[in-house]
User: Fold these one by one.
Assistant:
Number 1:
Amino acid sequence: MSDFSKYKFGTKAIHAGAEPDPTTGAIMTPIYQTSTYVQESPGKNKGYGYARGKNPTREALQKNIAALENGKHCICFSSGMGATDAVIKLLRPGDEVITGDDLYGGSYRMFTKIFENYGIKFHFINLSDADNIKKYVNAKTKLIWAETPTNPTMQIIDIEACSKIAKANNILLAVDNTFASPYLQNPLALGADIVMHSVTKYLGGHSDVVMGALVMNDDKLHEQLYFILNSCGANPGPMDCFLVMRGIKTLHLRMERHCFNGRKIAEFLKTHPKIEKIYWPGFTDHHNHAIAKKQMRDFGGMISIVLKDADQDKTFKIASSFQVFSLAESLGGVESLINHPATMTHASIPKTEREKAGVVDNLLRLSVGVEDVEDLIEDLKQALA
């Protein structure tokens, strides 16, 4: 296996983890569509016994994602929520977690509806000021779970500052890096212990796979999380792993266009008379813009807007009137999507809680794709007219 750690991002995206098939010389990693492996004698095999534990296609993908995050280990899961679930299973009843008040609705639902029932306490706070974390740290705090940029109000969390607090108190820091992707941000280099990706989004990039991943450097942490994967069974199939490997080969090219289009659209929307507020970390007046500039390579293609003087009916009408943007869940694909978080991705969060975090009924989230930006701007003009 070649060592691609010394190469730049685009080279790693295409080559890391991928070796020509030893049987045929095929340049693409084969899809090992098998549930079990023949053993030479009981307990003696070629490293593979049963596909829930290991699969060669999955292992190639894991090496690839680890290389992109400059990490030692990667474990792929059947979804981003499966990956998140594994991290929380590191904890015990009575443990406490500090996390953001502007959080993906699925994470909030899992934390409050599943794991609070097992005696784990979650503090949902504003993480955009890292010093705020110190108020909630105590002997029971075992994990800080941070998204940056956050979903959907695009808060920027200072990963390095969070890491210093975590390390001083022997707390794990896990960072959901989905919105940034490894192309824009590498949390391990900033002190995070675990990086989580909803691989479904930018890594896959084509809206045809559901998958999650965890990346880490610590051997013991990798062993614990792999044990959870193998024991609980949230493993992805080989066909999905193949599709993600194919998607990652163009990640750097896609992200360049996502960022270019995102900037053009953010600049267009910033002065639009129908927009009350816009969330995009590339603006110099964005809270923590300086931190975003320091820890990210660009500002991405995710934008949220609050419509001026729009009730829910008017918001729904606008959200349903796009012709190029599609009204749909998810993000990070080549096609542009529009989303109404209050009724879609964040519907599980109580109204008072989500509004406190800025997720109001007249907020729309844009996942800017890689279409011609002029067409996207024209679509926005007609939908907002």
Note: The chain has 13 helices and twelve strands.
Number 2:
Amino acid sequence: MEDAVRRRGERTISAYFVNAHTLNLAAADPAFRDTLNSGDFVLADGAGVRWAARLQGVRVAENMVGTDFVPEMFQVTADRGYSYFMLGADEATIPVAADYARRSFPGWELSGYHHGYLTDDRITSATIEQINATRPDVLMVGMGNPIQEEWIRRNLPRLDVPVCMGIGGLFDYWAGNVSRAPRWLRRLGHEWVWRLFQQPRLKARRYLIGNPLFLARVLREKATNRSRIR
């Protein structure tokens, strides 16, 4: 993705992080599936996606969790003069998250931020003008699935940004609204358990229903592929 930053002006590169929940949404919505397939980078987020890929004979080298990937990107490319714009979360959360990012990643410049409640075309156009005026190298969009990916795809032609990333709930972590799971639990690939414990009402359907549904879809696809081979 850094190559895209260096080639600024050619086109905007899109990057999406997909987990089991994202793929459940894509399975039920062909339009969203097309949006994900249009991404320049579609990165596996979570143990479930890696496991599903292995069943299909695809090896995923790394777990590209957005909450880990973005800070590491900032650290690896620090002091190269890059800048970023933060778009997403609510009006109370985004300035707190922006302040955290400014303090935590001094090698990058925060060019601006805006909440993610773009309720009409007028607000959307004004926000895109704000983003383009600051000329960031990376635009991080945190609106949740599938809103952020569809927003990115729809507005790519209007953005003067080399890289546009859908980063989910990262700003909530940076603002302290939710906390990361202990490192040992993340290494096991079960951070979802921590999320469920923190936000049971919000996450129960996603994990308690969504995870078994994802498992069933993966196993059904595996069985279908075996039948085709025979």
Note: The first helix runs from residue 2 to 6.
Number 3:
Amino acid sequence: MDVFNHLGELALGSRLKRLSDQIMRDGSKVYRDNDVDFEPRWFPVFYTLSKKAPRGVTEIARDLGITHASVSQVVRELLKKDLVVAVKDQLDGRRRLLSLSDKGKALLPDIQEVWNDVAVAIHRMINQHQTNIIDAIREVERSFEASSLHQRVAKVTQERCMDEVDIIEYQPQYKEFFKSLNYAWIHKFFELEELDEIVLTNPDKIIREGGEILFAKFNDKIVGTCALIKLDQDTYELAKMAVDEEYQGRHIGEKLGLAVIDRAVQRGAVKLILESNKKLIPALSLYKKLGFIPVCSDHHKSMYQRANITMEMSLV
């Protein structure tokens, strides 16, 4: 069984690497058949210098879209083979400028014939098939330029994590979770304040006064909570967001925040505010991602000593 065929898209990188290795092996044989002392892995750097020199390592790496380290490794091998020369940049003594050596220039006619033969052979192979692999690879490269594989996987992971979490409404049996989850983060970063005790031990008051309390449930366990507190007819506050430390990193806070914003919209809120502290960097990043922006604290006097930043979101 060809494992790569079985794995399909999951093995894309490994499959391309296998194909690349095969091409490199055959390329070495081609150079040997033509009595050319050259390695396929040198080709991009050597070709670049044959077309534009002198050139620094950083410039070559940028031209090729590969790492500085990869270019440096090839340059070291080319210098050892005396195919390139390096001189100090007169404008920057720390920088080396690379060019083909006399030996490298002398090799060009022979190696160019080999490149032409390789190009013809690959062209014939590609045109045997309905799909042009070069065009296909170019499209994949463009897609990854727009959004890297890392970014794409992170988005899929985020979606999966959020789908695994259920948002449920307040029930009296969840009262202790509202308190314990918030106690945990407050004690970790600050001192518990008198107002904390009042709010966290009387969650029903938030409900009676026109607000809501939501909970995040994962694998039948309450792992997060957030409150929507009514301040006046048009303004609500996102408050008391807390996620069990063991489950942080699963985008639970984001799902809670989105749910609270949605509830505020349903209630006809014009503005949603929140209070936080500037040292809570991950929390502030989440709030900004949700759409909150910092506002002048002079417009809002907090009742909490720890609050030193106010953020708000317009809902109209």
Note: Residues 161-314 form a domain with the Aminopeptidase fold (CATH 3.40.630.30).
Number 4:
Amino acid sequence: MSVPEFLNELLDARSPTGHEYEAQAVVDKWVEPIADSYRKDIMGNRFATLNLEGDPSVLFAGHIDELGLLITYIDDKGFLYFETLGGHDLSIISGRRVSILTAKGVVKGVTGKRAIHLMTPEDRKKVPQTHQIWIDLGVQSKEEAEALVSIGDACVYDQSFELINGTIGVARAFDDKAGAYAVLEALRRLSEDKQSLKAKVISVATTQEEIGTRGAITAAFSENPDFAIAVDVGHATDSPDCDARKYGKFVQGGGPIICKGPNINPIVFDKLKSLAEKESIPYQVEADARPTGTDARVIQVAQSGIATGLLSIPLRYMHTPSEMVDLNDIENTVKLLVAFALSLKKGEHGVW
């Protein structure tokens, strides 16, 4: 499969939450030239807008931050200790190559812990806490380490995107580079057919979702659109040991997951579902009884309320170094966003 260069660059960009610089640069490169208006904000969000006088307005949101580690302490031998940025599975942190983002450039290291041979049978059953894992730079002293890195530097796993079988790809940060790509690529395609577009469309690459949807809070407040769709990843539950009775049934390759529940405006849900059927776009439906763990949670309740929907791209092995996605699901998400934007007519609203 030919992988879109824009998606490839986003996936390779290292953007631990709060340190989204590389991903921001990719968005600037690919999206700013085609937008009617483009701006940055204090949170690091990137806003691209088409059809500035259009009515109604719709916001597409996908976050560009990813999981990471934040250096908090350097011991006398030069080993680095850290806190997690975002929700990690602590059992899989050790034994990973990492890239540390410093003021002087990228520094490579390896996460380590006591070898299994040196553990007691009881120790082997325990999940190590962050203070029991370290980053090894291959140095001999604190002074050597401090010449390379500083307290407060962030890092990510040193693991890039790869196609492993047909349209199936793995990457450390499909969450949520897949969603960010979808909302930005939808805008790029809409820019090629602006004469058919009645609505004002804003695509925003949001920041700091992994630590509380923080970029989306300010983005939704500043734009205050009539409609919004957040795009994130969702759990593909078609792998072993996922009980559909508990988590629902969602298939990798089955198309975007359209969410339904109190976090979702019913008019937006119905429109997304009917458009998917009209355009022969495969889709799946998820019922979520609570505020979702996505940007949709805060967008819905910004200002006086925004008619919000949520599309999730099916993903296996979330929050691991090898998240797995079918690229066809990303493409079908882009198509559904384009169809939604083109379907909006003057005077439409989400009041129900």
Note: The domain at 5-66+172-343 is CATH 3.40.630.10 (Aminopeptidase).
